[in-house]
Amino acid sequence: MHNRVAFHTDGFPYANMDGYERLIAFMPSADCDIAMGQVESERLRRMEKLPPEIWHQEYPQHHFDRPHTYRRTVVFVKGQPQDYFVFRNQFWASEPLNATYCLHVQSDRIRHNGNAIDFRDLSLFCAFPAQFKFESFPWSHNNGGRQATPGARLTVRTEQGEFITVLYPGRLPAVRAVESGVRVGDDEILFPGSDAGTFDSVIDDAATYVTVSRGNRTVASLKGKDIDLNRSQGEIGLFVPDAGYPFGEIPDWLIRQRSGIAHWAPSRVKQLRQYDVR
C-alpha cells in the first residue's frame, strides 16, 4: 500500500516535491498513536507518469518563490472492532497547485461512490475536501515478479488546503465528516482550525492540533507545545545520495543535527574531525 499527497502543475502533470522529511511530533497511547511529519521544498521535479526505473535522470524543475510546506498528521486509532488510520495532509504554497491524494492498494477491485472508495479489503473515506476530481490509476510492473495494484487519485487545485481521510480495513462503519474532522462509529477525530487556511503553517504552542474522543471522553490531544520542528531525527549518518533521488539543498536544521559527533563515535573519528558546522 502506498499513499501520499503529490503536487503538480499544468506543465508538470506528474512531479516530485523532493525535500528532507522530518518527524516533528509523536504521542503514543493505549487508545491511539499520533504522529506528525513535515517537509519543505523550493521546487517540483517533473517525473514520468509511471516509474521509468531509470535512476539519476535530470528532469526539469519548477521553482517556487518561497518554500512549499507539506505537513502530514497520522492518527492510528485502536480498540474498536478494527484499528484504523485517519490522515490530515496540509499544504501551503506560494502559488496555486494541483494537489492529489494518491493511494495504491494490493487488491483486485476499486469502486468509487461519492467520498468513499472501496478496495474490497480496505476502504478510503475523504472527509475534506467535500469536492474533488476522482481518477482511477492502475499500475503494474514485472520487475522481480508480477505486481498490479488499483490506485485512486483525488485532486484539488488551490494555493493552500488539506485532505482529511480515513483508511479502514474492510467495509466502512458509520462515518461522516463533521466540523473540523471526521466521526467514525463512536470515535471523533478533530483537527481544530481545519477549515482550509485557518491555521498558518507556523506552529502555535497554545493551539490544539488534534483531539481524539471516544463517546464523551477525550482520549488524546496534541497541542502546539508537543510539536518540535528541531526534534532529533536519530543518531544516523547524513544520507545524501548522488543518484536516484536528488532531494535538493540540505536544510540548516538537518546540518545542525548531523554536524556534531555522537558520543558513541570512535576516538579516531573525533581526532579526524577538524571543524563543526555551527
How would you describe this protein?
The protein is globular, with a radius of gyration of 20 Å. It has a single domain, classed as Beta-galactosidase, Chain A, domain 5. The longest helix has 8 residues, at 252-259. It has 2 helices and 18 strands. It is mainly β. Strand 15 (181-184) and strand 16 form a beta hairpin. The two termini are 40 Å apart. 27% of the residues are buried. Strands 1, 2, 3, 4, 5, 6, 7, 8, 9, 10 and 13 form an 11-stranded antiparallel β-sheet that branches. The protein has a 5-stranded antiparallel β-sheet with strand order 14-15-16-17-18, with no helix packed on it. The model is unreliable at 194-199 (pLDDT under 50). The protein has helices spanning 252-259, 267-272, and strands at residues 2-8, 15-16, 22-27, 32-46, 61-77, 84-104, 111-113, 116-118, 122-128, 133-136, 139-141, 147-149, 151-169, 175-178, 181-184, 187-190, 208-214, 217-223.
Topology:
Elements: E1 2-8, E2 15-16, E3 22-27, E4 32-46, E5 61-77, E6 84-104, E7 111-113, E8 116-118, E9 122-128, E10 133-136, E11 139-141, E12 147-149, E13 151-169, E14 175-178, E15 181-184, E16 187-190, E17 208-214, E18 217-223, H1 252-259, H2 267-272
List the keywords.
278 residues; mainly beta; Beta-galactosidase, Chain A, domain 5; five-stranded antiparallel β-sheet; 2 helices; 5% helix
How helix-rich are the residues, as a percent range? under 10%
CATH architecture assignment name: Distorted Sandwich
Structural class of the helices, strands and pairings?
mainly beta
Spans with pLDDT under 50 lasting ≥5 residues? Answer: 194-199
Tally the beta strands. Answer: 18
Name of the top-level CATH class: Mainly Beta
The Rg value, from CA coordinates, equals: 20 Å
